[in-house]
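Possible regression after last week's pipeline update?

I re-ran a chain I had predicted before the update to compare outputs. Posting the input and the new output here so someone can diff against the archived version. Not blocking, just want to make sure nothing changed silently.
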Amino acid sequence: MPSNLFIITQMRVALIQQSNTKDLQANINKLEANIRTASAAGATLVVLQELHNGLYFCQTEDPVFFDMAETIPGTSTRYFGKLARELQIVIVLSLFEKRAQGLYHNTAAVIEKDGSIAGKYRKMHIPDDPAYYEKFYFTPGDLGFYPIQTSVGNLGVLICWDQWYPEAARLMAMSGAELLIYPTAIGWESADSDEEKQRQKEAWIISQRGHAIANGLHVISCNRTGHESDPSGVTNGIQFWGNSFVSGPQGEILAMADSKNDEILIVDIDTKKTETVRRIWPFFRDRRIDAFSDLTKRWIK
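New output (post-update):
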């Protein structure tokens, strides 16, 4: 059977949006409870937020946080692998990966329903902004933009800052992704005005809906929620804005979580929609690939 044909046409997905504390085990216990609840509700694919085991430590540059990193395979993949095998579900993890001494990545690992690691993706675009000092911790990914094959389809997993780059979404789609998935940790820094905060949140939503439209795919975006303090005390911390959501292939919002509270967002998606939408919006047919060579340049001038 051709690999580009959809086998599963109806899928129930769950997005686990939760607030975290410095108590790592408590966070993991809450994740497990939420995953079990999602599975009991019929979800076969569960997506967790970016760096879900602990606090978002990138608000400051401190070498001590490298001690939080883990190998893949490692503690988290074994723990959640056992849970995936028990519940017969696919789980998208987001981990601080220790690849070698002094070499670290922000990595998504996809756990198959038999508990094995179906594949991983290393975050390609690494921000370096106030309260988001990720370049201090993470080496840019080197695995490219290739979907991970699972029992529920080919998952185009990207991570947070990747969500602003249409090229990343396009390459995932061109490589056969059947869904685009973004584990995310994004919120407001306290110095921003209310108007600026609203602009930022709306831009975040619009950009990912645009990826859905341009590629004719469902987009799953799972964000953190809650307030996390800045360990350095330089800022008043980040208020993560939640609003995890699922968009359909025409940019329609199928479901969106609350902005402030923990929530398990359960969504039924119809993967047949991709074929239907791409027939009426044949963007891949009409792409002028003969005229796009300048996209590999930093700037045209």
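Follow-up from reviewer: compared with the archived run. The CA atoms of residues 16 and 34 lie 7 Å apart. Marking as no regression found.
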